[in-house]
Write the structure tokens for this entry.
Amino acid sequence: QVFRLEDYRPSDYLIPSTGLTFRLSPDETTVVAELTVERRNGVKGAPSLILDGDGLVLRRIEIDGKTLEPSAYQASADQLVIANPPASGRFKLLLETQIAPSKNEALMGLYRSNGVYCTQCEAEGFRRITYFLDRPDILSVYTVRVEARRDEAPLLLSNGNPIESGDLEDGWHYAVWHDPFPKPSYLFALVAGDLGRVGDSFVTASGRSVELGIYVEHGKERLATYAMDALKRSMRWDEEVFGCEYDLDVFNIVAVSDFNMGAMENKGLNIFNDKYVLADEETATDTDFANIEAIIAHEYFHNWTGNRITCRDWFQLCLKEGLTVFRDHEFSADQRSRAVKRIAEVRTLRAHQFPEDQGPLAHPVRPRRYREINNFYTATVYEKGSEVVRMIRTILGAKAFREGMDLYFERHDGDAATIEDFLKVFEDVSGQDLSQFALWYHQAGTPNVTVSGSHNAASGEFTLEIEQSVPPTPSESRKRLMHIPLAFGLVDPDGKDMAYADVEGADVADGVIHLRKRRHVVKFSGIAERPSVSLNRGFSAPITLSVAQSAEDRAFLARHDSDAFSRWQAFNTLLTETLITAFRSVLGGKAPDFSPELLKLAGTIATDETLEPAFRALALMLPGEADIAREIGNNIDPDALRAGREALTFAVAKTNREAFSALYASLNAARPFSPDAASAGKRALRNVLLDYLSALPGGVGLAGDHFAAATNMTDRAAALSVLAHRHRGSQQATDALASFEARYCKDALVMDKWFQIQASTPGAEAVDIVRSLMEHPAFSISNPNRVRSLIGTFASANQTGFHRADGAGYQLFVDTVLAVEKRNPQVAARLATALRSWRSLEPGRQAKAREALLTMSSTPNLSADLRDIIERTLA
Ligand code: ZN
């Protein structure tokens, strides 16, 4: 079944209030739903009431207190139809269903994880609990009563505020929760179990006191202190930056160990993958700390962008996700280093969204059709969606953007809104016409902008010839011209931005060229000397750039651009171009050779004390095989990419050996440990240097020492990666893998890192490594985190292993995806996207990848989730 945006129609019926009573038991949970159903104003007659279900068993059905005759309704597992609802148009519908949380391996609806009952209802999981109008534009006030055995579940949580609790017979007890804010069913949540609690409180800007609770496995309370701190910082920040205040008496977060995604913003009761809550220096890396901070903030920020204002339908998913990602990006930028954060965001966007946008799974930020909505929780909706909001701010300026946001909250609080509603507030506050800009929501594909510059010394004119094009994507062969805000600078030989007397050929304001036509010839006058052009500063638009620019200009910008992002970009582009040349050399049977200037520039950047260590670390990270492959675009042989990249690593290390060693030694791990951004930046730089130095003779000893001396997980995991990847088989590597395993075998989240590091072992042997790790006692095919760390890493982050020339990587992959699919279609479908770039491989691998896709597509009884991905990937 295909769902289309243009088919949206408001529901004939509304459900203004919902009462739910759960009597919890692992295999036989009963759910009694008492719904107030109301015909929507203006609907004529008494049309049938059709409720969504998914795998439900109906036990009881009453309307206004009277049992319904079997002839009056039709109940299947997936639907409940009441053909002739009361003509009055307002009635009470009582439904009793029975479900088995312990058998729910799809982890949608109500399930049990480690003995804890929990729910995941977005997008369409609520219909696995009871029959309902399970669509986001049906807003209802929920009152939830949870009953359970006290010994099994002393803790009973749901959305909103607690209003009552007490004992029942036979060791049972109950709690009642009421959420005064009307909400869609996807935001419903329930948690029941035996968990430890970390408590705190927060006083909002207007003086309301909010009780905060984070619930984790007993004994792990200490590991939630960082998350709690991040939560309080998020709450304050949202008040200060967006004027958004929290609105209930309590705010709870629960960490569970089986979770399909990162976390979920259920009103007043966020549920998290425990990976994004639990952390201390011993078990979490600096990346983990940063992710926890970002995701805690993200889910909290949804309280306004997502919950108070929700989506009319799932086509509008980016309305809440793109916007909330933008908000969490800004939060992290304010808490940490803005420049470093921006570089990290762009790296993520290019690594995940660009291949999506440039391959068979491309779709607009606001899609127009879907078969399975779960497959649209994508980098395009989230990350590109955030970039689109960022461009609105760039175009309007920070002040008008904030006014637009204020108007959005004022105008749409309590609504299920659309992207058109969102754009309208910015048009209204600014008076600007955003209709061309709106194409960013409607049109898929990464625009390319080609630029060349020329200087006329005699006339003092500098000219930029700029052309945009948007490549065709599936089902969109012809693209319209976009409004692209291109931030730029004309950099003089001292590194300062030049002033110009006048400009013609495009709207240019506040350092931004607004491209609206296919081609602009932009002339700057009053430019005496030839500038170096810095383009797409701060990554002002999510595009690819083709700029005719000399290596000298790039190297100059890498050292002198006043925009930190562009400095990083200039050096990164130099590295990428170098690696593409190296790839061609390797394919031609020649040893790659490198420009001595470039090799030295790496040393200059590494030791430039005016730059933050975290920035230097990011600059020194060579583009990965997938990054280089994306730039080349076709006929990819990952082994040749890797050979070129290893050669460059070695050459950089050899050229800068002394400088790198001295710097490495000077960065000795600071004690006591602090997860703050500056300390993390020093660790990142030191660990990048380790990676280089370990490529030199004697490097294995250095890595072994680094591992042995590590006093935190960041350093330990970094050393383990270097040993396991570059020095596999050495005594140091073998010992380190064994000691890490012995030390952490009881800690599932740390074991994920152990699996992940080994799953990314480069080269042909990775297939056997992964196969044998699947037999490891700590591996479990039903736990999403384990599957992602071993299989997800192998398929998405190990180019040479996964794309092994003989196809053995694909075989392992097909077997596993199909095994996962039987339990959890959503996780399987996500894994399967790893093959989306198969058409860019060289012909031999391409044929084998296609075979793998065909094997999956011809498997009988494929889930809608997996079938959708496979078919689009093959199309
Ligand atoms: Zn979200």
User: Anything to note?
Assistant: The mean pLDDT is 98. The longest strand covers residues 172-183. Residues 437 and 873 are 29 Å apart (CA to CA).
